[in-house]
């Protein structure tokens, strides 16, 4: 295994110039040809938000097969948080490829898995003994978190919140708020999942204490605390539209869970791994969850996910009850070790705060010009704007998904890739990699400004 600490830290050298450049119509002819081939062999259930086929990626830039260069404000939904093809991650994964690619940790173990578990124990909130199970995807982490909480408590109930997103497997389909497109027609669904109101300050106007009281009262009435194994919460909701709960909401829920013997599971799959300027977003709220789920940003683009929890909870699963063929793959685990090292050695938590300043500053100027921008919210490099119908920002806040779609399409044509979110599709979310310079953010926002002007 490559010891990253032995490698001198250098200023990043980019293999692709960090600039936007459009040389064909978008999508270009080669992307269109690939799209034609894809339609023959890939079902429409796997859709693509943006029709450009990518040939190369580096830093904050994606290069498509036609030679167009895009500023990537999505980072594969918050996966390449430390930048596309970041040199130390590539080096660590390449070295690992030569040493060992697979043994199966549940047969013959290896150090990289143990190292990732040590790093997660160190960097997740809470100063107590922890254990980590590594798996392949976010949804698989959610499934394992619920499995372990059920075993530990001897209870079945799973509580989730409105506007939540937890994945596309059978259990997680039942845990999502939105039926379409994630669940429609794919039943029967897992039982014993209960959905409570969340804290959504822009719409409910409640304080954290009031919103928590509402969530708790709902769960006490409709399930009863004694039947709940776990409460699964995204500290900042991802697909739901970067909904940041009111101060005090999450800690009030944690206190209730602790008092009632319910396992509090923080789904930090999108909000974790330095994205918000802390290793995990829970820390912004003083929250110390019993279990933390990580995935997306953990391995710089390689598939890996983790379930990290209090030792006494995690130890309740029987030997052989947890695992899977590819879980904690050595190459993905080596990449994750490099990601942790890079966060430290390049002070990426500070970079996330820099990006917040640049994005919120620029978006605030846009909000003064365009009254469809109802709210700017988020923390670190996880910032969103919620778009409303003209003239409704101080009244009904009626969702405006048409504006979101028009802006995404305009920006794509001009070399800026931006993602949507929100239960009503009326949120634009910015999840740039931490390698995105202030100059690139300013350039991207100038395109978004034009897009708003065209509405
Ligand atoms: C993406 C996501 C998941 C699912 O992760 P996959 O790797 O796509 O299975 C679960 N929870 C949250 C908060 C996510 O953002």
TrEMBL record:
It holds the Pfam family Aminotran_3. The keyword Transferase applies. It is an enzyme of class 2 (transferase). Keywords: Aminotransferase, Pyridoxal phosphate, Transferase. It catalyses: (S)-3-amino-2-methylpropanoate + 2-oxoglutarate = 2-methyl-3-oxopropanoate + L-glutamate; 4-aminobutanoate + 2-oxoglutarate = succinate semialdehyde + L-glutamate. Its cofactor is pyridoxal 5'-phosphate. GO terms for molecular function: 4-aminobutyrate:2-oxoglutarate transaminase activity. The keyword Transferase applies. It comes from the Bacteria. InterPro entries: 4NH2But_aminotransferase_bac (IPR004632), Aminotrans_3 (IPR005814), Aminotrans_3_PPA_site (IPR049704), Class-III_PLP-dep_AT (IPR050103), PyrdxlP-dep_Trfase (IPR015424), PyrdxlP-dep_Trfase_major (IPR015421), PyrdxlP-dep_Trfase_small (IPR015422). Pathway: Amino-acid degradation; 4-aminobutanoate degradation. Its EC number is 2.6.1.19, 2.6.1.22. Belongs to the class-III pyridoxal-phosphate-dependent aminotransferase family. PANTHER family: AMINOTRANSFERASE CLASS III (PTHR11986). NCBIfam families: GABAtrnsam, PRK06058.1. This is (S)-3-amino-2-methylpropionate transaminase. It comes from Herbiconiux gentiana. The lineage of its organism: Bacteria, Bacillati, Actinomycetota, Actinomycetes, Micrococcales.
């Amino acid at each position: 295994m490559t010891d990253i600490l032995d490698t001198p830290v250098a200023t990043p050298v980019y293999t692709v110039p960090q600039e936007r450049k459009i040389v064909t119509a978008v999508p270009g002819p080669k992307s269109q040809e690939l799209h034609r081939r894809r339609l023959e062999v890939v079902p429409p259930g796997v859709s693509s938000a943006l029709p450009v086929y990518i040939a190369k990626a580096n830093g904050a830039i994606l290069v498509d097969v036609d030679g167009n260069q895009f500023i990537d404000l999505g980072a594969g939904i918050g996966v390449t948080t430390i930048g596309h093809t970041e040199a130390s991650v590539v080096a660590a994964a390449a070295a690992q490829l030569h040493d060992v690619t697979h043994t199966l940790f549940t047969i013959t173990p290896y150090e990289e898995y143990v190292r990732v578990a040590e790093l997660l124990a160190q960097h997740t909130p809470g100063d107590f003994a922890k254990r980590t199970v590594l798996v392949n995807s976010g949804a698989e982490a959610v499934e394992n978190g619920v499995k372990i909480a059920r075993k530990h408590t001897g209870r079945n109930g799973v509580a989730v919140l409105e506007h939540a997103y937890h994945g596309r497997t059978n259990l997680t389909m039942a845990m999502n708020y939105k039926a379409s497109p994630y669940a429609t027609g794919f039943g029967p669904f897992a039982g014993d999942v209960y959905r409570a109101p969340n804290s959504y300050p822009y719409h409910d106007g409640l304080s954290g204490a009031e919103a928590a009281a509402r969530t708790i009262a709902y769960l006490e009435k409709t399930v009863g605390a004694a039947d709940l194994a776990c409460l699964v919460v995204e500290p900042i909701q991802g697909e739901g539209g970067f909904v940041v709960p009111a101060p005090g909401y999450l800690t009030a829920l944690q206190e209730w869970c602790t008092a009632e013997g319910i396992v509090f599971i923080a789904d930090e799959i999108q909000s974790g791994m330095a994205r918000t300027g802390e290793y995990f977003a829970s820390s912004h709220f003083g929250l110390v969850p019993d279990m933390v789920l990580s995935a997306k940003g953990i391995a710089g683009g390689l598939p890996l996910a983790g379930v990290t929890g209090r030792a006494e909870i995690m130890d309740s699963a029987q030997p052989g009850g947890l695992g899977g063929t590819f879980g904690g793959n050595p190459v993905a685990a080596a990449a994750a070790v490099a990601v942790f090292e890079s966060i430290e050695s390049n002070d990426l938590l500070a970079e996330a705060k820099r990006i917040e300043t640049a994005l919120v500053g620029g978006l605030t100027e846009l909000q003064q010009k365009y009254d469809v921008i109802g709210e700017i919210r988020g923390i670190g490099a996880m910032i969103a704007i919620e778009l409303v119908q003209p003239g409704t920002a101080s009244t009904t806040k009626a969702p405006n998904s048409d504006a979101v779609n028009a802006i995404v399409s305009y920006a794509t044509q001009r070399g800026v890739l931006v993602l949507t979110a929100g239960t009503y599709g009326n949120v634009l979310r910015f999840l740039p990699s931490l390698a995105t310079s202030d100059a690139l953010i300013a350039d991207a926002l100038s395109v978004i400004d034009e897009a708003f002007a065209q509405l």
